[in-house]
Design a protein that fits this description.
alpha+beta, Ubiquitin-like (UB roll), Creatine Kinase, Chain A, domain 2, Four Helix Bundle (Hemerythrin (Met), subunit A), 3 domains, nine-stranded mixed beta sheet, six-stranded mixed beta sheet, 23 helices, about 45% helix, globular, binds adenosine-5'-diphosphate, binds magnesium ion
Length: about 700
């Protein structure tokens, strides 16, 4: 086991803690390896005899690497990962122990399902749940100072077979999109394509702050964000942090992060400072979505772990600080085939590439028809704090295609064949020593929530702390739904080319309203969106209602991705989590106010009053002081009244399982919290810094 940073070049240790293809071949007899590969690549049943052989090889490898335990590693519906460590030790009759790890232990685990969010699917008295090995995502080793553990990615379901996790529906959606996309491809003559699968690259934004602040601020400790904090004199207006030079503290953190990620096979590729002070980003190279989703969880865990080693704290909250950018996760999504096609690659002559234009149109229709569902897939209590603010995309789903692609679709929609003067542009800067560049077919539009970026779609509404699984489950399934419709039409038509053209035209005419190439941050976009009939969904509580729509329920059922019961469970979990998070924030504010801020401002007020009296008795001019004391006294009075008001509203929070509680939290609790914060922040700006009991924004954000 090695905890220090490996000194060798990445190529020497990349994936050393992954039971990858090469390692499998070393530890599993060839015939069994071949059978396992067949199951991984083509699906099918994994027989227990094969599982026994694979488990033996895995155990041998893991123990050789220092592992003492294994765990089924899964993603329950609480947004985190779960693990229960079991040692490899098994007692013998003679009183000793041997190491044991059977195929059964590898493929199946049992767990108490009632202690994870289940939205009523599991009551405590019928608690059994199962974890099942997902052999399509590689097994890996987690190592830290405490030891080495073999982690087995698993799906998690209830005794009655309902999915209680993020992975199961994602895996089901892969089947749906594969089947439907492949059917359409056969009509274009691709008879040998054996698989269509989504690829995803998830860019991860995060904040790093000094760990010492965590101890001094209950809000950071309990909620991951600041619930108080006045605007510092400088935020990000100088645009000096984005891509800024990485200081040594941060770059040594990033170096170790890269090493840790490379060891577990995560292809961490880019790293840079982001727009807000103390904000950074990491992006891996894209991979199959199931693996990308598991690896994004590993990335988030590793960010926390490595930060602690550097006396830093990583904040994955979507909006840790007001007045500056929040953090998101950009989900770059494409569909590719086993024979090497990217279905969203326009090629050099996109106007002739009918397959590309049809696939693109399918996504346009899917995004417009199910925009409410996509909106929900990115909604959470914490992401509500971000969407619509600063750099975040607005809370309205629209698509950016870029002018070239849009012009092609427009031309088809108007009945013409070829757009006028379409040509890839070459940029010449007029300086002989600078290269001449081919310009991309679409510009960047940072304000669009769903942007076509050359040969993939970048969905930017995801929150930084979210699992990417469900968003991709939704993307895959809604695309499958539209493709299945398209297939039915094409199969029944007489003239294939004409029908493809007609479908593209109709989609553009019926769903073109979702395309918006303009500035999504502009004030008039919301009214324009409403005029177009696009849903404007400001928060999670409103967004959740889409799960009750029969179109959504039927669509998920059609492709066996979600049962109605699972969707209702999700609905309950979303609202329950919303209410609980709101309640925790309110209670944290109350504690901070009563035990830290109020005592501090009262002490300051007392000191100022004494000073006023002393100055007065010395016969000096005291007007300026009286004004100040009066002002502080008035703010303190407001603070006390607003604390009491928030306490009263908090006391009125009902049963978390009742969806009405979430509405109450949104409509009554959040405004009370905002008011209280506003008053506290005004006081922070006026009170002697020596009295202020918690670190301020300038201390937290600018001490890199
Ligand atoms: P930017 O910040 O310009 O969006 P990044 O390099 O930070 O670019 O991230 C782009 C992400 O998109 C990376 O994770 C990259 O691997 C991924 N990506 C690139 N091509 C594809 C593709 N065809 N399908 C899915 N993801 C892709
Ligand atoms: Mg980026």
């Amino acid at each position: 086991m090695r905890n220090d940073q490996p000194s060798a070049y990445p190529i020497d240790f990349f994936g050393e803690n992954v039971f990858d293809d090469e390692t499998m071949q070393r530890y599993i007899p060839f015939e069994s390896y071949r059978q396992l590969k067949e199951v991984i690549e083509q699906g099918g049943q994994l027989h227990s005899s094969l599982a026994d052989v694979v488990a033996e090889g895995m155990k041998e490898w893991a123990i050789a690497k220092g592992a003492t335990h294994y765990t089924h590693w899964f993603q329950p519906l609480n947004g985190f990962t779960a693990e229960k460590h079991e040692s490899f030790i098994s007692p013998t009759e003679g009183g000793g122990v041997i190491t044991a790890f059977s195929g059964k232990m590898l493929i199946k685990g049992e767990s108490d399902a009632s202690s994870f969010p289940s939205g009523g699917l599991r009551a405590t008295f019928e608690a059994r749940g199962y974890t099942m090995w997902d052999c399509t995502s590689p097994v890996f080793l987690k190592e830290d100072k405490s030891g080495v553990t073999l982690c087995i990615p698993t799906a998690f379901c209830s005794y009655t077979g309902e999915a209680l996790d993020e992975k199961t529906p994602l895996l089901r959606s892969l089947v749906a999109v594969d089947e439907q996309a492949r059917k359409v491809l056969t009509l274009f003559g691709h008879l040998d394509t054996r698989r269509v699968s989504p690829s995803v690259g998830a860019e991860q934004e995060y904040f790093l702050i000094d760990r010492s602040h965590l101890k001094k601020r209950l809000d950071l400790k309990f909620t991951g964000r600041t619930l108080f904090g006045a605007r510092p004199p400088k935020c990000q207006e100088l645009e000096d942090h984005y891509y800024g030079n990485l200081n040594e503290k941060i770059s040594s953190f990033m170096k170790e992060l890269d090493y840790e990620l490379w060891k577990v096979g995560v292809t961490a590729k880019t790293k840079h400072n982001e727009a807000a002070p103390s904000q950074h980003e990491l992006a891996p190279v894209f991979s199959a979505v199931n693996i990308a989703a598991d690896q994004n969880q590993i990335i988030m865990e590793t960010l926390h772990k490595v930060a602690a080693r550097h006396d830093l704290c990583c904040l994955l909250h979507e909006k840790p600080f007001d007045y500056i950018n929040g953090s998101g996760k950009h989900n770059n999504w494409s569909l590719s085939t086993d024979d090497g096609q990217n279905l969203f690659e326009p090629g050099n002559t996109p106007y002739e590439n009918m397959q590309f234009l049809l696939m693109l149109s399918a996504v346009i229709k899917a995004v417009d028809e199910y925009s409410g569902l996509l909106r929900l897939a990115t909604a959470s209590y914490t992401n509500d704090c971000r969407l619509g603010g600063y750099e975040a995309p607005p809370a309205i789903i629209s698509m950016f295609l870029g002018s070239d692609i849009q012009r092609i679709l427009e031309t088809i929609a108007s009945g013409d064949q070829k757009p006028e003067g379409y040509q890839r542009k070459v940029m010449d800067m007029g300086v002989g020593t600078l290269p001449k560049l081919h310009v991309d077919s679409s510009d960047r539009n940072r304000t669009s929530p769903f942007a076509f970026t050359g040969n993939k779609f970048e969905f930017r509404m995801l929150g930084s702390s979210m699992s990417i699984s469900w968003v991709n489950t939704v993307l895959n399934t809604i695309t499958a739904d539209v493709l299945s419709e398209i297939y039915d039409r094409l199969r029944a038509c007489r003239d294939f080319d004409l029908e493809v053209n007609a479908i593209i035209r109709e989609i553009y005419q019926d769903h073109g309203r979702i395309i918006f190439n303009g500035n999504g941050y502009a004030g008039d976009w919301e009214s324009e969106a409403r005029r177009r009939g696009l849903p404007v969904v400001p928060d999670t509580v409103s967004a959740a209602e889409v799960l009750k729509s029969s179109a959504v329920i039927d669509m998920f059922a059609k492709f066996s991705v979600h049962s109605k019961e699972e969707l209702m469970a999700r609905y309950e979990i979303i609202l329950e989590t919303y209410s609980k998070k709101a309640a925790i924030e309110a209670k944290t504010m109350l504690t901070m106010c009563r035990r830290q801020i109020l005592p501090a401002v009262r002490a300051y007020l007392a000191q100022q009053s004494r000073q006023l009296a002393d100055t007065q008795s010395a016969g000096l001019d005291v007007d300026y002081l009286r004004v100040h004391v009066d002002e502080i006294a008035a703010l303190v009075r407001s603070l006390i009244a607003q604390t009491d008001a928030l306490a009263a509203v908090t006391a009125g929070i009902g049963d978390y399982c009742d969806p009405a509680t979430a509405t109450y939290c949104r409509d009554a609790l959040l405004p009370a919290m905002r008011q209280l914060r506003h008053t506290a922040d005004c006081l922070e700006e006026k009170v002697d810094a020596r009295f202020w009991p918690i670190p301020t924004y300038d201390e937290i954000l600018f001490d890199e």
